[in-house]
Amino acid sequence: MRPAPPRLVADVMAQVSTISAYFEVSTDPVEPAGQGWRPLGELFTDVEALSARVADVRRRLDTTETRIAASILYQGLAARLWSPVVGAAVAHDLLADLDPAGVRWRPEPTGPLPLWAPRLEGWEITDRDRVAEPLYRIVVGGLLEPLALAVRETTRIAPALLWGNAASALAGTLGAVARERPELAARALCLGRELLSHGVLAGGGELTGSAGGRLSFVRRSCCLYYRLPGGGKCGDCVLLAPRTRRER
C-alpha cells in the first residue's frame, strides 16, 4: 500500500457515503466542532457514557434484559464501524484509517452514529489479495475489540455472542455494497470470507454468494433479538430452520 493524498481520501469517503447512512463519514475540516462532537475513543473508555447508551436502547426496545440491549447496540455500532472502511476498500481500492484518536462521534437518539474525521488518513490498495489483514487490524483490533471489552464492563454478555454480532454486521455491510454495486459482489464475497477466517471472527458463520450477486450469511450464534416482544428471528439467525432460511 501507499499513502493516499488527503483529497483522494475525502473524495472516496464522499462517494462511499452514498451507499447508506451507515457508510457516511464527514471529512469536512470546518465541521462545527462545538456541536456535541466527542472523541470516538470515549466509547471505549467512558463506561458511564456507554452504559447510558445501553440503557437508552433498552428503553427503546421495551425490554428489561440489559444484555439484549447491549447486544443490539454492539451490532449496530459494529455495522457503523465496518461500513465506511469496507465500502472504501471494496469499491475504491482505498483503506481508510478510522483511528479512534482522530474520529469524532455525536450522540443521536436514533439512526446510525454520526462520524466526523477532519484529518482522515488512508492508503491506496495496490494488492487486493493482501488487504484483509490490515483491514482487520483497523476495524477489529482498533475499534471492535476495545468496544467489546467496554460493553462487557457494562453487561454480563458472552464474548462469542459479540463476535457473532461483529461477523453478522460485516456480512450486512458486504451485502449492502453488493446490492449497490452488483459487479463488486464477487470481490465483496472474497474479502468477507478472508475476514471471517481471521482472529475472533473465525468460525462466526458462513458467507455465500448466488449467481445473481446476492450475498447470504448464516451465523453460529444468536444476537438475542428473538427474546424481544414480537422480535422474531433475524435472516441470518442460527435458530432458523433451514427451510425457513431458504424461503427467506
From TrEMBL:
It comes from the Bacteria. This is Ferric siderophore reductase C-terminal domain-containing protein. It holds the Pfam family FhuF_C. GO terms for molecular function: 2 iron, 2 sulfur cluster binding. Residues 219-239 form the Ferric siderophore reductase C-terminal domain.
